[in-house]
Sequence to fold (72 residues):
Amino acid sequence: PHILDQFYWSKTISDLQLGPKGIPIKKLGEKEFEDKMLDLMNNQIYKNNATVISEKMKTENDIDKLYNLIIS
Fold:
């Protein structure tokens, strides 16, 4: 993340265990990027949680309810 809402979404994704927390762009290096990418690709918890949220999202049409479903 490096501007505005990206920090919020990075924290939200991490808090919901949907992916690793992003690294601020000024601190991002090749090793940090590789570590985060491998974590994202290999962490089964992220995939399981994303699948659960995806299934819930398929049944919701109301934007406000959908937002609340995602962040809760």
Q: What stands out?
A: DSSP finds four helices and no strands in the chain. Residues 29 and 61 are 40 Å apart (CA to CA). The chain has a mean pLDDT of 90.
